[in-house]
Amino acid sequence: MELLRNQIPAEVSRITETLTKAGFEAWIVGGCVRDMLLGRRPKDWDITTNATPEQIQGLFENTFYTNDFGTVGIVNEGAEDESVRIVEATPYRTEGKYSDARRPDSVQFSQHIEDDLKRRDFTINALAYNPATQQLLDLYGGIKDTSAGILRAVGEPEERFAEDALRIMRAIRISAELGFSIEEHTKEAMKQCAGQLARISKERIRDEFIRIVNSQKPMDAVILAQNIGILGYIVPELQKGIDIEQNQAHSFDVFEHNLRSLQHAADKGWGFEVRLAALLHDIGKPASRRWSDEKHDWTFHGHEVVGAKIAKKTLENLKFTRETIDTVSTLVRWHMFFSDPDKITLSAVRRIITNVGRDHIENLVKLRICDRIGTGRPKEQPFRLRKYQAMIEQALRDPISVAMLAVNGKDVMDITGEKAGPRLGWMLHALLEEVLDDPARNTKEYLSQKLLDLHTLSDAELIKLGEAGKEKKDAAEAEDIKDIEKKYFVS
Ligand code: ATP
Ligand code: MG
Fold it and tell me: Where does a domain end: 396, 421, 446?
């Protein structure tokens, strides 16, 4: 088990060693042992010990103890590796009865590591490793399940899900993250207990849902949640898209289209907000579907407006932050922004940027790509999309103008004593020409010096220089736009 010991960060070893030297047992336990066996970097490190919370706190300088479950947070301030900044140490616990499928009625400490492993959710999460003795304790076949890629409940599955129904979501989340399959008996019990998820807090459900969406296989996970019977407790509105046939541009029903869009965002490794927006982008379609005799097809007019409202409600219900709710519902609201790039104007593009915000325009384009792939069309970035990106970049970039200069009109007046009037504009444009020739000249010192020269010129001479500056500016603008178009292969 040298292999395991070498993977343990120094900050964590220091803690187990301190406990052991003080005469206590100390095990690294749970998900982090599983992750080490899989060669994955653990997200956090948990230690379990026969020391009491007070005894643990007595051994370390910087600790905190806030919950009712005996967990002591040991702080490694300034550690580079974020996963070890707070290491949790918890006394061996046995859990009392659960009368609410949510929280144990009581928590008791134990002197036996075996008790602690027994209360854990899945065999792969019920492994413990003792760095002092190098023993890997595996009471439930967790090593075998880890290498076979199987998620299996510890003990009697139905009992375990009835104790804490969040475990049903944890099963789906962990299987999505690790690409594991769920053992049949365990899966059956998840179905049996699905209704109990109604009693779990929205915040706990949200946290697991976030991890499902951020996993590599979110589409399979949402389908699994639907088959198990828990999707209705997470995002009920998605279910309305099942069997809702779309128009001829689509190969899939609304439900599958939303999921495929999400999966594409995951395949690209795109961020959470794009993924969530992709999952929800057509959530307004079932409510807006109308048959058109004229077109002999279904229409979904206004589904993005309805959809933005539904998305907002759905995310509020799951207690997402205001920022996430606003961003995602705004993306849903504007996801239909596309129109013919031959006809769309730069000012229309600017309007879209104003609607979604500069920070989200890139995500809107990504959402559009997901939407397209989600219909079953194979090509991601046809010409019109690249053209659109080029226009967005054009709209976003700062224009070339006298505003770029290190001096402004007021500076000119202060430095030269000139009065407000057309001469100021000519002087600034003359400076702009200098700066376009060599951007290094754009300092207050250089330009001030230059201004003193310009100040001595007649109106006629200044007009000439100013006009030359404007021409140079127009040429530079045209050059910039050409560069952008080249970048997107649309010139
Ligand atoms: P990750 O750290 O990647 O989220 P994890 O499995 O380590 O995955 P944690 O929430 O860190 O999940 O929990 C640590 C361990 O605590 C788990 O591996 C498991 O042994 C136990 N555990 C967590 N939640 C539950 C639960 N609801 N029921 C039973 N045991 C649980
Ligand atoms: Mg963990």
Answer: 396
- Strands, E, within 205-342: which ranges? 290-292, 297-299
Which residues are near ligand 2, the ion (C-beta closer than 5 Å)? 31, 44
Question: Which atom of ligand 1 is nearest to 43's Cα?
Answer: 2
Q: Which residues contact 248 (CB under 8 A, 6 or more apart)?
A: 297
E strand or H helix at 64, and its extent? strand 63-65
Token duo for residue 332: 């849903």
Ligand 1 mutation target, pool 120, 139, 200, most atoms within 8 A of CB: 120
- Report the residue among 28, 32, 86, 121 best suited for mutation to probe ligand 1: largest number of ligand atoms under 8 A from its CB: 121
Are residue 385 and residue 415 in the same domain, yes or no?
no
Q: Which two tokens stand for residue 338?
A: 């596309």
CA-only gyration radius of the chain, Å? 31
| Number of compact structural domains in the chain | 3
What is the spatial distance between Cα 289 and Cα 58, in angstroms, rounded to a whole number?
65
Which residue, among 191, 262, 192, 199, has the nearest Cα to 224 in the 3D structure? 191
Tell me the mean pLDDT per 10 residues along the chain, length 491.
86 97 98 96 96 95 87 93 95 85 82 96 98 96 98 97 96 96 98 96 97 97 97 95 79 90 97 98 88 84 92 98 97 84 78 88 92 81 78 82 90 93 93 88 93 94 92 84 76 64
Q: Which atom of ligand 1 is nearest to the CA of 163?
A: 28
Burial class of residue 69 (count of CB atoms within 10 Å of its CB; 0-12, 13-18, 19+)? middle
Ligand 1: which residues within 6 Å by Cβ? 30-31, 43-44, 46, 120-121, 125, 164, 166-167, 170
Residue at 94 is within a domain = yes
CATH number for the domain harbouring residue 338: 1.10.3210
